[in-house]
Amino acid sequence: MEKKRIAFDLFVFEHDNELSQNEQKLLHTAEAARENAYAPYSRFKVGAAVLLENGETVIGNNQENASYPSGLCAERVAIFQAGARFPGVAIKAVAISAAAMDHVVDQPAAPCGNCRQAIMEYEQKQQSPITILLKAEKGPIYKCSSMADILPLAFNNSFLGDS
Ligand code: THU
């Protein structure tokens, strides 16, 4: 038996001004996008901003539905829009901002499993890491250097064979 340990570096910042100018801007774009979330059911708003290699930024926010599973998270609204509008352009970073309407969220909300998988697909396709920035209304900022860090042992198309 061999025991393997999988670890990753999580960078924790106390203030926005510890980030690069580009990262601060991306986070603020995600915060602004969050305001337009359609979240009447969960009353939990999420905004996402995707920075592309060509300098474009694409935003998303969670879009809920009376038929609950039909809604979509902010991250996938944003990343799929990036894929649709800028096919073949590499994604450099995704900033995610979360806030509840009825209480204060004071620690970064991590992306759900489906969103990790969706972002991972692009990371694998472009063969370069995507930086993930997370922040709530209050509290620290988390930065991960790659989606692979927070989705280890990910399923990908290599399991599907050549066809
Ligand atoms: N949500 C996101 O938009 N992103 C996540 O990564 C986690 C959850 C949304 C989905 C739903 O509209 C609300 O937050 C509560 O789960």
Protein described:
The protein has helices at 21-35, 74-85, 113-126, 147-150; strands at 10-13, 44-52, 57-61, 91-100, 131-135, 141-144. The protein has one domain: Cytidine Deaminase, domain 2, CATH 3.40.140.10. The chain has 163 residues and is α+β, with helices and mostly antiparallel strands. The protein has a six-stranded mixed β-sheet. Tetrahydrodeoxyuridine is lined by residues 39, 42, 44, 46, 62, 64, 71, 73-75, 111-112, 115.
Short description:
With 163 residues, the protein is α+β, with helices and mostly antiparallel strands.
Per-chain topology:
Blueprint: E1 10-13, H1 21-35, E2 44-52, E3 57-61, H2 74-85, E4 91-100, H3 113-126, E5 131-135, E6 141-144, H4 147-150
Parallel strand pairs: 4-5
Antiparallel strand pairs: 1-6, 2-3, 2-4, 5-6
The chain binds tetrahydrodeoxyuridine (THU).
Instruction: Fill in the CATH topology.
Output: Cytidine Deaminase, domain 2
What fraction, in percent, of the residue positions are helical? Answer: 25-40%
Strand-pairing-aware structural class: alpha+beta
Secondary-structure element string: EHEEHEHEEH
What is the domain tally? 1
Q: What is the beta-strand fraction?
A: 15-25%
Q: How big is the Rg?
A: 16 Å
Task: Enumerate the distinct ligands.
Answer: tetrahydrodeoxyuridine
Q: What is the CATH architecture descriptor?
A: 3-Layer(aba) Sandwich
Shape: globular
Largest sheet: 6 strands, mixed
Number of helices in the DSSP assignment: 4
CATH class: Alpha Beta
The total count of strands amounts to 6
Poorly predicted ranges: none
Arrangement of strands in the largest sheet: 1-6-5-4-2-3
| Mean pLDDT across all amino acids | 97
Looking at CATH, the homologous superfamily is Cytidine Deaminase, domain 2
